[in-house]
Amino acid sequence: TFAHWTAVVVETSRLYExxxxxxxxxxxxxxxxxxxxxxxxxxxxxxxRLEDCAxxxxxxxxxxxxxxxxxxxxxxKVIQDIxxxxxxxxxxxxxxxIKSALQDLVQxxxxxxxxxTELTLEGDLDGALTEDEATSLxxxxxxxLSNVTRHAQASSLRVKLATAPHSVRLEIADDGVGVxxxx
Length: 183
Fold this sequence. Notes:
The chain is an alpha+beta fold.
């Protein structure tokens, strides 16, 4: 019996390690895709703009100067996006820590994107979410705030987390340009 239980413990440990390694690989893939879809594409666009500027430099220097300014602005936005992305990787959400993780996330948006932010927390979250649920909720907020800072051209952002007896509700609103639902 002892040998059997020892084998079960060893096998469970091995499976747990495999699961952990799989989770790390999935996270690396997600990070790679995020970088590819965001920063790398933006940097590539700037490189193309700079190559075009180099070709036109002697013919139309006045136009090139404006394009160089635009390229520098674009690079500064990429730097801001990368800083924001690095900041977004930090939080480790635990069951009772979703509030502070959201506070850090909202504060990060305020600092890196210079957007006026407000976080409202309503209700008692203690025990309302499992660790996986809290992490998922945080990742949803993280992606939404990332989209606001990258695409919305917003000057203000409001995040509200409210609990009810059998539910948790996350609301995110901004004053940005929005999207065309027909597009």
